[in-house]
Structures are given as C-alpha cells and as structure tokens.
C-alpha cells in the first residue's frame, strides 16, 4: 500500500534528520514478547488447546478488523462509546479493530448456519484491542480465549461451558479452593424488576448497566444513580435486599415468575455435584455488561488476597445469530484474557520454570570443519532433536558454557579422529562423560535413546 502524504512527509523528515533516535517504548497498553515471555504464553496456550480438544471444540479465527456497525449493534455500550479503536479506510468505510470476538463468531456462524454440524463447539484465542486505562490484569492489547457452543440443549450446554471454564484454570494448576464461579440468570433480575418492582421497561437496560458496575460504587453513589433512574428509596432498599438473597429465597419471592430461578438452581445443583460447592456459587449481583446476554451469566473470581478480582466470564445469548437474518440458534460461551490467567498463575505460584528447548549443541574447532559440523547437525535434527549449530568460532570451553546456558543435555562434534573413524563424539553436560558413537543409523539411534532417557 503506498504511503499517504503525511507518511511521505514523516519519512522525508526522518531521512533529513539522521540524528533522530526512535523510542524503544511500544504503544501504551501493549506488550513485547521476548523469548521467555513467548515461552510462557506457548505453555499456557498448549494446555488450553489440549483441554479444548478434549471437550470436542474446534479452533476458528476471524479478521482483526470489522465494520463498525457490527460492534455498535452487538457489543456493550461502554466498549462502543469509550473503548473502540475505529477509523475510516481509503474507501471511506468506517471500521473498527475487534474489541471482542463474539460478534465476529455470530456473523461467521450465521453465514454458514445451515452447513454446520450441530452442536457447534468452537474456540479461538484472538488478539483484541480496547482503549482503556492499563492496569493489573487489563491492557489495551490482549489475547482472549473464546469458547462457545450452539445448537444443543440449553441445560447441557450451560453445564458443559462452565465445566470447561473450571477446567481451564485446573489445567494450569489451580485447585478448587483457589477460585469461585459466580452464576446468575438474566431472567431472574428481569422478572424481579418488571414483575415485583414494576420498573418501566424503558429503564431496565439502564438499570442493568448500573447493577453491572455496582461493585465499583459506594452505597451512597449507588443510591444517587438509582434516583436518576426514578427509583424510590424503598425500591433501592428492596433491590439491595434482593442482591443479597439465596436462590431459594428468590424462587419464593418471584412466585409465578420464578421459572428462570428454578432453571438456574437445576444448573447450580448439577455443577456442584460435578465439581465442588467450594467453586459454584449463586450470585444475583452478576449481570455482565453485554446487551446480547439473555439467560445464564457467570464470572470466575480469584480468591487469592493479592488478586481478588474477576478473571473472566460469559453467558447465554439466545438471539445473537438471528440478528444476522439467520434462524434462531441459541448459544452460550465465555471470554478469558491471557493477562488475567497469567496473573492468576503468578499469585498462586503456578508459573512453571521454562527453558529454551535445546537438546544438543554441535561444536566446531576451526574454519575447516564447518561443513562436517553442519552435516552432523542435519543428522541430529532428522532424529527430531532440537540442535543448535555454531555460527561463530570460539574456544572449546566457551562453546561448552554456551551449551549449558541454553539448557542442552549434550554437545556433539567431529574432530580429526572421528572423521577418520567415521564416528562422532558426545559430551554429556550433566556428568562430563564423553562417548563415541558410529556415524551410522545404529549409532545415531543409540545416542537418541540415551538422550531421551536423561
């Protein structure tokens, strides 16, 4: 793509000022992944990929840029108004960098709805961007695990999606006492507001958004916001009491309107039996800010005193696919940011000690043995061994030290004697022992077996 006029001017200015020093600092809220960082991310993602496949989920992906109206229609008001990165392309189309994956997922499923085998079990780990204040557990650029299931029985889907959410944390080392899954149902609060408190329908969406951020407000601030929505003090008090009720109390309170609460109790009872009552909790204050949620909603909370916060969450969205002109197709899912799970592992002591995965280093003695060293490296790689070849000449001892630093188990080389006798020599770094192997298939196989045993 050709540079714009502004881009050409900037390029010209830089070329004219040879002393210009570019900053090494990246854009605020983004990250550089140095090899150690990437190694940890790969470790976590490999655990997640294995877990998702064990549940039968298939990986998918989508574009990082979508038409703005997709998010305007299907993302939360906070994301669209305050956090969206939007711009116009050269065709004067208004686009946005994806802040979340669910609208793209719904668009993709709707586009091939009749062709897809049901139930649809999909997951993805896309990169997203939101313009918000960077803080612990929250950045502007982040990866987000998205797990969704469509086209099955809602009870079974809801149970499965939360079981997979629990297992995501367990697969990186978590125990049941480390976290809680707080569960609610949008129908419960809707029934209470409409049928018990008689809140006008036009105020319910605004009140739900207020309840979603209630934990960030003081009691007085919450009361003031309730007054703005025309709630009396008695109604505010009743709402507070409701938010501190058990599922059994709410079923009794809602009476003829208790169907959503009864549905949720069935899910909670099943999940407790399948996991632990330490983990599964009913929490009527859980709302989730996205407008597309229609049924069960949940959030997973870290219980560690140094990280007591919501890690991730999700819920049921029964009307999302039909919005694209397709047939009704109910779904449920969740999104989990990579920053949150890394912080969770860190505070609980679950971060592994990861090293560069080098099996063997080949060493050289002079300019004349370059080709023989490279041939030996090729043979070792053909065995499936991670093999580093030398790209600089240094003393034998220095090459041994470098091999130890990268975590190699052995060094291998061919000196004059090994070339004459058609062998190669191996020095085992842990013991210092040296061994000679035939430069034939039998010798390489023996070396491979011993290395894998160490």
UniProtKB/TrEMBL annotation:
<dbReference type="InterPro" id="IPR036621">
    <property type="entry name" value="Anticodon-bd_dom_sf"/>
</dbReference>
<dbReference type="GO" id="GO:0005524">
    <property type="term" value="F:ATP binding"/>
</dbReference>
<dbReference type="Pfam" id="PF13393">
    <property type="entry name" value="tRNA-synt_His"/>
</dbReference>
<keyword id="KW-0436">Ligase</keyword>
<comment type="subunit">
    <text>Homodimer.</text>
</comment>
<feature type="binding site">
    <location>
        <position position="148"/>
    </location>
    <ligand>
        <name>L-histidine</name>
    </ligand>
</feature>
<dbReference type="InterPro" id="IPR004516">
    <property type="entry name" value="HisRS/HisZ"/>
</dbReference>
<dbReference type="GO" id="GO:0004821">
    <property type="term" value="F:histidine-tRNA ligase activity"/>
</dbReference>
<dbReference type="GO" id="GO:0005737">
    <property type="term" value="C:cytoplasm"/>
</dbReference>
<dbReference type="InterPro" id="IPR045864">
    <property type="entry name" value="aa-tRNA-synth_II/BPL/LPL"/>
</dbReference>
<dbReference type="InterPro" id="IPR006195">
    <property type="entry name" value="aa-tRNA-synth_II"/>
</dbReference>
<feature type="binding site">
    <location>
        <begin position="100"/>
        <end position="102"/>
    </location>
    <ligand>
        <name>L-histidine</name>
    </ligand>
</feature>
<feature type="binding site">
    <location>
        <begin position="292"/>
        <end position="293"/>
    </location>
    <ligand>
        <name>L-histidine</name>
    </ligand>
</feature>
<dbReference type="InterPro" id="IPR041715">
    <property type="entry name" value="HisRS-like_core"/>
</dbReference>
<protein>
    <recommendedName>
        <fullName>Histidine--tRNA ligase</fullName>
        <ecNumber>6.1.1.21</ecNumber>
    </recommendedName>
</protein>
<dbReference type="InterPro" id="IPR015807">
    <property type="entry name" value="His-tRNA-ligase"/>
</dbReference>
<feature type="domain" description="Aminoacyl-transfer RNA synthetases class-II family profile">
    <location>
        <begin position="28"/>
        <end position="454"/>
    </location>
</feature>
<keyword id="KW-0547">Nucleotide-binding</keyword>
<feature type="binding site">
    <location>
        <position position="144"/>
    </location>
    <ligand>
        <name>L-histidine</name>
    </ligand>
</feature>
<keyword id="KW-0030">Aminoacyl-tRNA synthetase</keyword>
<feature type="binding site">
    <location>
        <position position="130"/>
    </location>
    <ligand>
        <name>L-histidine</name>
    </ligand>
</feature>
<keyword id="KW-0963">Cytoplasm</keyword>
<keyword id="KW-0067">ATP-binding</keyword>
<dbReference type="Pfam" id="PF03129">
    <property type="entry name" value="HGTP_anticodon"/>
</dbReference>
<comment type="similarity">
    <text>Belongs to the class-II aminoacyl-tRNA synthetase family.</text>
</comment>
<dbReference type="GO" id="GO:0006427">
    <property type="term" value="P:histidyl-tRNA aminoacylation"/>
</dbReference>
<dbReference type="InterPro" id="IPR004154">
    <property type="entry name" value="Anticodon-bd"/>
</dbReference>
<feature type="binding site">
    <location>
        <position position="288"/>
    </location>
    <ligand>
        <name>L-histidine</name>
    </ligand>
</feature>
<keyword id="KW-0648">Protein biosynthesis</keyword>
